[in-house]
Amino acid sequence: MTAKIILGTEVAKEIREELKKEVASLKEKHGITPGLVTILVGEDPASVSYVTGKQKTAKELAFHSLQDTQPADISEARLLELIDKYNRDKNIHGILVQLPLPKHINETRILYAIDPKKDVDGFHPVNLGKLMIGEADYLPCTPAGIQQLLIRAGVPIDGAEVVVVGRSNIVGKSIANILLQKAAGANATVTICHTRTRDLASHTRRADILIVAAGKPKAVTADMVRPGAAVIDVGVNRIGMTPEGKAKLCGDVDFEAVKEIASVITPVPGGVGPMTIIMLMANTVKAARLAAEKK
Ligand code: NAP
Questions:
Q1: Mean pLDDT, to the nearest integer, of 259-285?
Q2: What are phi and psi of 179, to 5 degrees?
Q3: Which stretches of 42-157 are assigned E, i.e. beta strand?
Q4: Which atom of ligand 1 is nearest to 171's Cα?
Q5: What integer is the mean pLDDT of 25-45?
Q6: Is 38 helix (H, G, I), strand (E, B) or coil?
Q7: Residue 227: predicted pLDDT
C-alpha cells in the first residue's frame, strides 16, 4: 500500500479561501479589518524569510498588516515598550514576535508581555493554560495546523491511539493536549515520547496516528510504523543546499520507506509548514472577531 500524501499547501489554500470570506464579513458587519503586526529583531535570514511569508499571506487576506523591524541591539526595555504600544493599539488584533530573539533579550519576558487577547501565536502561558483546560481562544499555530490536516484528510481521531514524538511546549505537548480534549476533532488516547523514552519503537508501532516533532532526520524509520498508520512529520531539518542555493530540507521521518506502509503521510517541505502560517492568520481573524463581539 502506498500512502495518500496530505499536502499542507492545498489544505492551507482551502483555509485561506474560508478566511477571505470571514475577513469580508467582519468588514461588512462590524467595520473591522484584522490587524497583525510582526516584530522582527535583527536580520537572521531564516527569521526574515518567515516574517516575509507571514506578511505576504496577511496582505493576500487584506489584513491591516504591519512589519516592525528593529535592530539586533535593541534593548529589552525598548522592545517591551513597543509591545505595550501594540497592546493598546485598537487597530492591531494580533502581535507576533519572531523567535529566536538575540541572547541579551529574555524571550519569556517578551512573550509574557503580549496581551493574551492578541497572542495569536498561542505561546502566552494564559493561552497554553486555557488549552490544557479545554477553553482555548488561540491554539499554537503548528499544532492547530496538524489537527486541521488530520480532520480535513478524514483521519479518524476520536478514540485513536496517538503517539507524539517530542515534548516541546509549542509542538509536542501542545498537539498532545489538543488531541486529548473531550471535543470534536480530538478524544484521542495520547502518548508523548522523548529522549528518555525506553524503547521508542514499541510506542510508535502502536500508533494509529504518529506525530513526529523531534528535529532529527530519519528519527522514525519504516520498522517503527504500524501498517496503515497516519504519519504527520513536523520536523524541518536542513541537510545541505540545492544547486539553486536554497536550503535542502528533510523531515524527521524516513519518508520514502514510510510512505509504502502508512495510510496517509505529510511530506517535508509542503506538509505541516504551510499550515503554521495559515493558522496564524486564522488566530488573527479570530482575535478581530472576538474584539468586534466585545464592542
Ligand atoms: P525541540 O524543542 O528541539 O524539541 C524536540 C523534542 O524531540 C524534545 O522533546 C526531544 O526530547 C525530542 N527528541 C529529539 N530526538 C528524539 C529522539 N531521537 N527520540 C525521541 N525523542 C526525541 O523542537 P520543536 O520546537 O518541538 O521542533 C521539532 C521539529 O519540528 C524541528 O525540526 C522544528 O524545526 C520543527 N518545527 C516545524 C514547524 C513547522 O511549521 N513545520 C514548527 C515548529 C517546529 P527531550 O525533551 O528529551 O530533549
A1: 97
A2: -80, -15
A3: 64-70, 94-97
A4: 26
A5: 96
A6: strand
A7: 98
pLDDT at 1 over 80: no
Is the CB of residue 248 less than 8 Å from the CB of residue 242? yes
- Residues 16 and 284 sit within 8 Å (Cβ to Cβ): no
Domain ranges across the chain: 30-115, 141-273
Q: How far apart are CA 11 and CA 114, in angstroms?
A: 29
Amino acid at 104: H
Model pLDDT for residues 161-209, shown as the tens digit of each residue: 999 999 999 999 999 999 999 999 999 999 999 999 999 999 999 999 9
* pLDDT of res. 58: 97
Q: Is 148 a catalytic residue?
A: no
For domain 141-273, give the CATH superfamily: NAD(P)-binding Rossmann-like Domain (3.40.50.720)
Residue-wise pLDDT for 60-81, tens only, equals 999 999 999 999 999 999 999 9
- Pocket of ligand 1, beta carbon within 6 A: 142, 165-168, 170-172, 193-197, 200, 213-216, 219, 234-237, 272-273, 276
Fold match between domain 30-115 and domain 141-273 = yes
Torsion sign across C-alpha atoms 198, 260, 148, 100:
positive
d(CA 214, CA 254): 13
Predicted structure pTM score: 0.97
Nearest ligand 1 atom to the CA of 268 is 41
- Among the four given CATH numbers 2.40.110.10, 3.40.50.2300, 3.40.50.10860, 3.40.50.300, the one describing domain 30-115: 3.40.50.10860
Sheet with 94-97, strands from edge to edge, namely 64-70, 35-41, 94-97
